[in-house]
Amino acid sequence: MTDIEAFIRKREQADGKSYLEVCDLLPAEGPRIMKELELMGITFGSLFPGLDGICKDLKDRLFAEPV
Question: Is the pTM for the entire model greater than 0.70?
Answer without folding.
Answer: no
